[in-house]
Amino acid sequence: MKERIISKGLVFAVIILFVGVSIQPAIAKVQAENIYVEYFDVTTEFIGLDKTYTTQLTKQEIEKLDALFNSINEHLNKSASFKDSIEIFKKVIFELNSFGLLGNVGVKETEKIVIGHYQNKKLIKNLYKVYDKEKNPLEGDKNLFCLIAGKSTGTFFSNFRNLGLVFSITIILIKLFPNSYFQLFGFTIGLTLLSLILDTLNPLCLGRQMLFSPDTYGKVLTCGLNGNKYWEGNLEGKIKCLILNNTYKAAAGFTGLKIQIVTNPNSYYLGFAILVDIDTS
Q1: Domain boundaries, position 156
Q2: For residue 206, what are the CA distances in angstroms to 19, 125, 198, 241, 242?
Q3: Do residues 262 and 42 touch, judged by C-beta distance below 8 A?
Q4: 79 with 134, same domain?
Q5: Which residues make Cβ contacts (< 8 Å) with residue 58, sequence separation at least 6?
Q6: Is the pLDDT of residue 98 over 80?
Q7: Taking the mean position of all CA atoms in its chain, how far away is CA 128?
Q8: Among 47-51, 137-141, 265-269, the range of highest mean pLDDT
Q9: Residues 206-232: pLDDT tens digits?
Q10: Residues near 48 by Cβ (< 8 Å), separated by ≥ 6?
């Protein structure tokens, strides 16, 4: 009897040992995966909405994001029409949302600031009628009223809105009415509020600008009234900035997205610009 009990105990112990050995590696594997996953802060700036959103991506997701922007030029080269190019940008926006980069802004609202200008078919049709790139070619390598996408170092965006105009008017009024500071202050406040309202209502705000630092490197592509334009290498903006001396803009009238990874020098951007003028070396 005693021997039978010992035998059953040994069998039970062997079963427990077998189950424990089979389960333990699986648990260890899951724990290892959780321990070694590293996340990086990624900020999306919605230029034109004055909103920002920060999320976290893994290294693998960041590599996929980089590959996504690298593929845009290849897809645009294969597009047969401007309508196809718009669809490519829509797919990119959808992919950005799948990464969680659009936050509560969402796909539809993002599409409005990136490609919303092209939803007005009458406006586009009239623009193409007015501008004939064969008869009136642009000087240099410029593009007008265009979709723009790129990634580059040393890239930043400013939003002067219409405040530059307000500042100029204020200076003139000070010279004309030097003894009426109180009325002038009220008038300046009124003009400032008016400029903000106009900027909100006007989607083609020239004050939203993209600028490059002296050592900017990367690639930018556009698709607009002057066809497809592509720049890669050391980038230099060629649009003279009227507010900042000795500063040149790469794009004027920009609305769209700027995506910045804290640990990465590159800025990724996707949007619309009224004018883009870039030189490479």
Answers
A1: 40-160+205-280
A2: 69, 22, 12, 11, 11
A3: yes
A4: yes
A5: 37, 38, 39, 40
A6: yes
A7: 26
A8: 265-269
A9: 568 899 988 999 999 999 888 889 999
A10: 113, 203, 205, 208, 255, 256, 271
Q: How far apart are CA 95 and CA 67, in angstroms?
A: 11
Distance CA 132, CA 124 (A): 13
- Six-digit token string for 72: 């845009």
- Fill in the amino acid letter for 40: F
**In a shared domain, residues 175 and 251:** no
Three-state secondary structure call for residue 267: strand
Same domain for 110 and 172, yes or no, is no
Confirm if 154 and 206 have CB atoms less than 8 A apart.
no
Asked whether residue 10 falls in the same domain as residue 97, the answer is no
CA distances from 4 to 8, 10, 14 (A): 6, 10, 16
Nearest residue to 44 via CA among 108, 105, 112? 105
Q: Quote the number of domains for the chain.
A: 3
Lowest mean pLDDT among 41-45, 49-53, 100-104, 163-167: 163-167
What is the spatial distance between Cα 140 and Cα 13, in angstroms, rounded to a whole number? 83
Cβ atoms of residues 256 and 271 within 8 Å = yes
Structural tokens at position 206: 């020239």
pTM, full prediction: 0.71
Strands (E), the chain: 39-47, 51-58, 142-152, 155-159, 208-212, 217-224, 227-237, 239-240, 248-252, 255-261, 267-280
Tokens of 109: 């609202």
- 24: its two tokens: 């333990």
Percentage of the residues of the chain whose pLDDT score is greater than 70? 60
